[in-house]
C-alpha cells in the first residue's frame, strides 16, 4: 500500500465476506525529513567563513540526525547548524543528509560560490599624515581585481588591476585630486569568482 501523505491510517480486514476486523490508526505514516539548507558568509574581509543552517524539519516526535560534507575537506559535521572555513575562493560542493530515528532519509547538494567579501570605505583622507591616506580594499590577495575611479561627472581618472586594490587620491598622471565625491567600480577578473561592486567615496583633505 502506498500512502501519499503523512497521517494515521485505519486497517480493515474482511474474512469470508462476513467477518470484519478493524484497527483504528494502526498505521502511522510520518513526514519525511527535509534536507534543504541556507547559508551566509561571515562578511569578514579576507576570510572564507560561511555559516550553514538546515531548514526546519516537519513538526513531529522524530529525532533527526545531520551529516554535512564539504568538497574541500574529508571531515563532516553532524549538527543542524555548522560554520565552515573554506581554503580559498572557488566553487565547492556542499552535501547535507538528514536521517530520522525511523530510518527515513533525505539529502541535497548545492554548489557554493565562495568569494571575497568586499568592504569599501566611504571616506579617506590623503593628506600625507600617515593616517587613512589610502583608499584600501581589504581582501585576501587570492583574486585579481580591476579598480576604477571616476569624478562625479563621469570622467575616468584612475584605473588599476591588482590583488590588493587601493587609491592614493591622485589621477593617472600623479596629480592630486581635489576634495569631493568620487564614483568607483571594483570587479573581479577571475571567471570562477565573479563579483562587481559600485559606490561613492568622499575624498577629504
Describe the structure.
- It is a single chain.
- The protein is mainly beta and 205 residues long.
- The protein folds into three domains: 1-30, no CATH class; 37-114, Immunoglobulins (Immunoglobulin-like, Sandwich); 123-203, Immunoglobulin-like (Sandwich), CATH 2.60.40.
- 0% of the residues lie in helices and 50% in strands.
- The protein is built from no helices and 16 strands.
- The chain has a five-stranded mixed β-sheet, with no helix packed on it.
- Strand 3 and strand 4 form a beta hairpin.
- 15% of the residues are buried.
- The mean pLDDT is 86.
Compose a concise summary of this entry:
The chain is mostly beta strands. It folds into three domains: 1-30, no CATH class; 37-114, Immunoglobulin-like, CATH 2.60.40; 123-203, Immunoglobulin-like, CATH 2.60.40.
Secondary structure topology:
Blueprint: E1 7-15, E2 19-29, E3 37-41, E4 49-54, E5 64-70, E6 76-77, E7 81-85, E8 90-100, E9 105-114, E10 123-124, E11 135-136, E12 145-151, E13 156-162, E14 166-167, E15 180-188, E16 196-203
Parallel strand pairs: 10-16
Antiparallel strand pairs: 1-2, 3-4, 4-7, 5-6, 5-8, 8-9, 11-14, 12-13, 12-15, 15-16
Number of helices: 0
The coarse overall form would be rod-shaped
Q: Please report the total strand number as a whole number.
A: 16
Helix content: under 10%
Strand order of the largest sheet: 10-16-15-12-13
The CATH class assignment of the largest domain is Mainly Beta
Write down the secondary-structure element order.
EEEEEEEEEEEEEEEE
CATH architecture descriptor name of the largest domain: Sandwich
Amino acid at each position: 500500500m502506498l500512502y501519499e501523505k503523512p497521517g494515521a491510517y485505519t486497517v480493515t480486514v474482511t474474512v469470508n465476506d462476513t467477518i470484519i476486523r478493524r484497527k483504528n490508526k494502526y498505521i502511522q505514516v510520518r513526514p519525511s525529513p527535509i534536507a534543504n539548507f541556507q547559508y551566509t558568509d561571515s562578511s569578514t574581509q579576507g576570510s572564507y567563513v560561511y555559516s550553514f543552517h538546515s531548514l526546519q524539519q516537519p513538526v513531529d516526535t522524530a529525532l533527526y540526525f545531520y551529516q554535512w560534507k564539504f568538497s574541500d575537506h574529508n571531515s563532516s559535521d553532524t549538527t543542524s547548524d555548522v560554520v565552515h572555513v573554506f581554503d580559498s575562493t572557488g566553487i565547492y560542493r556542499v552535501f547535507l543528509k538528514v536521517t530520522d530515528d525511523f530510518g527515513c532519509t533525505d539529502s541535497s547538494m548545492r554548489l557554493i560560490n565562495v568569494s571575497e567579501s568586499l568592504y569599501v570605505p566611504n571616506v579617506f583622507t590623503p593628506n600625507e599624515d600617515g593616517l587613512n591616506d589610502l583608499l584600501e580594499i581589504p581582501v585576501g590577495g587570492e583574486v585579481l581585481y580591476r579598480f576604477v575611479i571616476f569624478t562625479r561627472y563621469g570622467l575616468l581618472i584612475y584605473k588599476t588591476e591588482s590583488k590588493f586594490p587601493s587609491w592614493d587620491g591622485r589621477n593617472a598622471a600623479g596629480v592630486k585630486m581635489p576634495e569631493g565625491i568620487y564614483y568607483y567600480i571594483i570587479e573581479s577578473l577571475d571567471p570562477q569568482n565573479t563579483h562587481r561592486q559600485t559606490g561613492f567615496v568622499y575624498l577629504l583633505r
